[in-house]
TrEMBL record:
It catalyses: L-lysyl(4)-[histone H3] + 3 S-adenosyl-L-methionine = N(6),N(6),N(6)-trimethyl-L-lysyl(4)-[histone H3] + 3 S-adenosyl-L-homocysteine + 3 H(+). Its EC number is 2.1.1.354. GO terms for biological process: methylation. It is an enzyme of class 2 (transferase). This is [histone H3]-lysine(4) N-trimethyltransferase. It comes from Scomber scombrus. PROSITE patterns: SET, ZF_MYND_1, ZF_MYND_2.
Amino acid sequence: MTVGNMESAQLFDAGKKGRGLRATKDLKAGEVVFAEPSYSAVVFDSLASQVCHSCFRRQAKLHRCVQCKFAHYCDRTCQTACWDEHKRECGAIRKLNFFAPSENIRLAGRLLWRIHKDTGIVSDSQLVSVDQLEDHVADLSEDDVKNLHADVHAFQEYWSYGSKKHSADYISRIFGIIKCNGFTLSDQRGLQAVGVGLFPNLCLVNHDCWPNCTISLNHGNQSAVSSSLHSQRRIELRALGKIPEGEELTVSYVDFLNLSADRQKKLKERFYFDCTCEHCSQHIKDDLMKAAAEGEGSKPSADKVKDVVAFSKECLGKIENSRVEGDYQEVVKLCQECLGKQEHVLADTNLCRLRVLSIASEVFSYMKDFSEAAALVHKMVDGYKKLYHPNNAQLGMAIMRAGVTHWHGGQIETGHSMICKAYRILMVTHGPNHAMTRDLEVMRTQTEMELKMYLKDKEAYHNMREAVLH
Ligand SMILES: [Zn+2]
Ligand SMILES: [Zn+2]
Ligand SMILES: [Zn+2]
């Protein structure tokens, strides 16, 4: 294996987990351990005309590549920055009569064109060659193997455009590498998954359900007037807290808000390993995630809890269906019924309750009922705080949503304090230059001003709000 250099991390033998990365110096919360541009990345099929194929920002107005009519960009700068990545793809799509194959196949194409052009290693700081990453093709189920064959076939049609041929085995390996190492990229507001990319160094960071690092996507800056100030799209790995020199660096591949057995199941299915992290092996916080309500009065019986959990799961299915159909009145009705049944039976840290609270608060916000939404999202955040690591990015984003909801609901004191709290978390997880952190900074200033006004003269504040709203 080729070994390159990184300033704050190095490759080491992590025992049973295989290779891993460890800190080569003491790190503090929010410190960037390393940043890495994608080796290659593609926008999802469904968003191909809504997301820039260069910087992966979601934009209202994008310009189409006139040649293939498939790729879309913010502007010329983004298009020029991406031309090297898109050139061969553009030709291949034209040759297929303007038919762009699915994201998987496009990513394999971009990956192979890059391997041909630059070999598997593109910089001194890249620790491993892309084609040396794990593929787990041997572990695939029968159905997966069928899909893989179909992909390989489609790929061969697409790839026929003036390039050297590869064996089906080699192409299978490339698809395997994408399947178990592909990293999902989100838009600049962190709201939606918009694409998938390959980051070779990031693949060396092992999983832990309670990790010491977190990953964020920096969309880069193509808008600077001077092109020397342009920066590339890249992921950034940040320390969630103090990490002493020599400690292994870890990230979580799954959301912590699942019972340990469910996290283990997901990891096994998707990444083919058995998680033996401390939180899984000791089932840490599982009890909270399935807890019954406590409080005055009698504790609910085990049977009652079981019934309500079963009811909630069924209800969540119906809620999802109504949401897909856009029937928000029905979603509200179902949520209220479900939350009513859960009251005094499930704890506020119970996963079933948290899922309903999350959906219900979103829908009430959507319907502009901010005071109801605020009450629900507040409960949700209280539950999250007891479960998540204090610097978890999901927690930060949930507090951000709660802060905005309270603010819009006229609860300026709580709103401002939550926005400040979210800002502190996102400074650690996303850093000062991320679009979300910047949004929070603006909101922090705005709510601070409003809070001062409110504290000085509550009536005048409410009158001003009314005037703005109506
Ligand atoms: Zn762009
Ligand atoms: Zn094109
Ligand atoms: Zn685990």
